[in-house]
Structures are given as structure tokens and as C-alpha cells.
Amino acid sequence: MTYHEPTIASILRLLAEEHQGSVDERTLLDQVLTRRPSSAKNPYATIRDRLRWDGLTLGWLRLSRTQLIPLRIALQDLTFRCQPRDCDLMDGLLPVVHLQPFAGLRAYDCLVQDTDGELLPLLGIEQEEFRHPSLPAVDLRAWYERTGFSPGDSIIVTVIRAQPVTMRLEHEPCTALRNDAVQAQDTELIDAIVERVRRSQVALVPCDEIVLPIFATASWRTTYPGTPWQYLVLNDRRLHLVDDIFLTTQHLPVLSLFGHDEVFEAPPQSEQALHAVDAALLAEIDALQKELRYARQHDAEAGLWSGQIQRASARFGRFEHTEPGQHGLLGGLDDALYDGIWELDDPWLGEEYEPDPARLVDTHTYTLEEIQERLFAILPPRDVERLREARPEEAEVIVASHLNRLLVQAPELFPRIDHIAPVDYVDHAVTAFDDDEDWHEAWDDDADDEESDLYDDPDDEFEDQTTLAALDQSSDLIGQFYDYLREMGKRDTTARVRSRALYVYAEFLATFYGRTLAEGDYATLDECLFFYYPQSSAHTSERQVRELCTAIKQLYAFLKERGVIFDNRFAEALWRRRDQAARVIALYERIPDDSPGSEVLVTNLFFPYIE
Q1: Low-confidence residues of the chain, pLDDT below 50?
Q2: What are the start-end ranges of the H helices in 410-563?
Q3: Residue 559: what pLDDT?
Q4: What average pLDDT does the chain have?
Q5: How far apart are the C-alpha atoms of 271 and 276, rounded to whole Å?
Q6: CB–CB of 212/61 below 8 Å?
Q7: How far apart are CA 420 and CA 383, in angstroms?
Q8: Dihedral class, residue 487 (left if φ above 0, else alpha if ψ from -120 to 50, else beta)
Q9: Best CA proximity match to 178, nearest among 157, 156, 193
């Protein structure tokens, strides 16, 4: 690069000033290459990396896998609401986290002014002798007094200028709040947050990657604002707000590292409120059960099954929702694959990438918890799931396959990379598509040499050779199905994800019935979809169960075409009930663990498998 040649970063910043709306990613990449040609084998990779890791600082906000928009366009004239806590009023402050992610997560360089245009001072952490948990914050002591601000009142914030980000504060008394006008907005916002978090590639997602795209494309982005997104998250059982700025749908051990000096805390609910929530959920569950009974009876009369409910998986008791894979051979493999769909065809590091030499030196001594957290934040989700369940020998193989990437993004981990804390159970997520020879060698060595109690327990599932044989045969069928999809012109990503989804049912049949996929039927598939699958993974979603139903339907159509089976009507029948399966998962997620009626709700939801 010559002295005057523009950098990728400078070109992206310039393009962010030129574009006046959303743009296709490929178009943006081509525009960068037009101004800075590259002879690299994959010239798009480096630009994608800059957009992936530094997009917001370079002026770009990602709306979807293929669409981006200049950040200034997304922020201009945007309105949102803040509701200061009582302690904020006493301190005369508005913590900056109330303004996030619109004020930015990486730097607090926004300007805040009142309706008269007077700038309000920003207090940073360095401006006090002892750290105050609310800092950094906007000093609103005089503004609170001048406006007569009272507990329960709100602040309506408008971004009046996007560069630099300038926000105007307006006081709204609690008596002026129009709840009816924002109910639909609140529902749309929280549902969109849940869906985006579920589809994210990391366990803890920064809120700017979730909230900003939703506001940028919402029809209400410049209208009367609804409830602050933080309070919507705190009151939704499907989500967790961590350290005020991270979002997750998972119950993670790493969450215990946070929780200190947080501004946003979940409000306590009265017992009466909890009973009201339970009653509403129970009514929805009863309505769904009525539909399930009708569908099963109708299919029995059509000759698709005998009508006899199977309960083999129910004998194992309730699955622990917080420990995916504990009761099965493959665990949460399919979920990680679904979450990582877009990264399979997208390289992480380009040929032109050059690490910053300053990042290669780190004298900090990391604890095991810090190392685990750092690794889980960097590695792809599918490998995070494998790493959670791996023995030390297996963990070394998994991490070794990402050494180049870790060297660039986290070189400080290398001195302690062999000290990753192992977990107590084994990852058996080895499929027909895992081609890493080292992984298979490590697996084979463990199978030959392991002398632990795992193999001595007479009740252990892996001692059952019937189970292993059935799973092997199902894996072969899935491999044939994958080849068939590729022959039919399906993209490798589609064929791979759809094939691996089938391991949910393959594991279920092998573990509880000693059967192969070729021996599947209506009763076992109903049990899998409406009892086993909703409880077998920490982050199963409605979208994933619909995908599973589609994969199963296509598999059995393929098996019938090849003469392996003679009747695939049961798979088609369960595919038609995919929306019912999705509703079971949605309702299960809404059942709070601390609810006084949680056991009754679970029993009714999974009837007749739990009686």
C-alpha cells in the first residue's frame, strides 16, 4: 500500500457518508474494491472482517446477513424512552446505560441537551475519587429540579443530530403516559429482540447488535416511544440482561461473573401477579391440548397409527433445561448449527488481514473463568457446544483447529490454553460430516483406553450396543440423505444443516427404542416433537422445530423413493403439525421456574407424556 492509498477503514467511512439508505453487502464490498483493488484470493474476506468487528465504529450498522445501513441514517430523528430509577433521582444522575445502545457501547462521546438547547454535563468514572456504580452518567440534578421530575416520570429522548450523536431530553409526567398507544410497539420490539438473540452466534450478544437494527427498520422509530427495551427484557422470561449491555436466552454459568453494580435489575413480582400469569398460560395450554387431541385422533382414524401413546423418554424424568446433551448422545448439536448457518459459507479471516503487533503482548494473568469466557466469545457456536461437553483430550483437539484464529484475536490465551476447565460429561456429537482425522483419532483412543466409571455403570447408555448400532445405521442414512440433497442442487450449507437436524430424531430413536431412522413411526415422532425435543436443549426455538419437521418429511420421502421404507405418510402428518410443535416450545419457554404453578403448567403442557 502506498503512502497516499486509502485504507479499507477510510473508504468504509467515506461510503457511510455517501449512502442515504440501506445497501446490499456485496454492493458495498464491490464499491470498496473499486477504490482499493486487491489481488488477494478472496478480496472480500478482509472487508467483511472489518464490517464484522468494527462496523459501528466505521459508520455501518448491519441490518441482516446481506443488508447494511449507515449508522447516521439509523440514528437520525430516532426516539426512545428512559425511566430513571428512584436512586437516580436522589443522586441527580441519569446513568449512560439508559441511553445505550444509541449513545454507543464503546465510547461515551455523545452530547446531551435539554429542550432549550443547553448542554448537560457528562460525568465520567475518572471524575470522582471513589467509583460510583451509576457512572458514567449525565448530571441532571438541576434539570430534575427545573422540570419538577417525580418518581415514575419518563424522559423522551430524541437523536436530533447523528454526527456527533446529540440527544435532546424532554420530561413526560407519568400521568401523560399513553400505554394504549405503545402496547403493539412493545410486543413487536420484545419479540424481535428474542428472535435476534436466538439467531445470534455467541452466548452473550452486545445489545447494539440486537437493538439498533430493530429500531432502524421499525415503523415507529420516530414516533411516540414505548417502554424502554431494558425493562421489556427484564420482564420477559425468555431473555436475560447481563451487565446492563449483554443479551442472552441461555442459562450460562458465566453469568455468575456479572451482576455487580448493575443499573437494571428485574423487578420483584407479587404472588398475585404470578398467579395471573399462570392462569393465562394454563388457558393457552388447554386450548393447545384440545387441538393436539383432535389431531392425534384424526390421524389414528386415518390409519397412520394405533393411537397408543409411547412414553419411553418420559421414564427418564424431566430433562434439565440448563444442561443440553445430558440425556442424549448428540445434545445441542443441531441448535448450534442452526445458529451458525451464515458463518459456514463466510470465512473468518482474509488473506490480507494483519494483526496489530501490540495485541500480541499481554502480561495479564488470566483466571480459568476469564479464559473460558474469552474462548466462548470467539469460537463458533457449534464448537462452543462441543467444548462445553468435552474431556481435556477432546478440548485440545477442538481448540487446536482454531489456533490461527485465536492467535489473531486472543493471543493472550496461548500460555494457558491447556488449562480449560473440563466439564463432567462427554460430547458425542460426531457425525458423518465431521472430517477432522485428529478428532476421530482422539475419539478412538478414548474409546479404547478409558477405564472410568462411565463404562462401568450398567445403566449407562453407551454400554447398550443396540443403541450404538442403531445410531450408526441412522448416521449412514443421514449421509445418504445429504448426498441426495447435494445431487438435487441444494447448497452445501442447506444440505448440511438439514441433515444434521435429523440427529435429534436419530438420537431419540436409538436411545429410547434401539431403532434406526428407517424404523421411525408416528408414535415415536410425536413423542420426540411434543415431549423430548422441547426439553432436550437449552436453546431450542420455534424456527428450529419447524426446520426439524421439514427435514424429517424430506428424509422419509427420500427413504420411500429409495425403497428403504414403504410408507412416509406419518412424517407428512407430523410436518403438517409443525406449528403445534412450535407452540409447545413457545409455551414451555414462557413457564417461569419460580412460578407457584410451574409444575402444573409443565404437566398440562406435556400431557399425555406426563400424567
Answers
A1: 129-130, 258-259, 318-365, 415-456, 458-459, 461-463
A2: 437-449, 453-456, 465-487, 492-501, 503-513, 522-527, 533-536, 542-561
A3: 96
A4: 78
A5: 9
A6: yes
A7: 14
A8: alpha
A9: 156
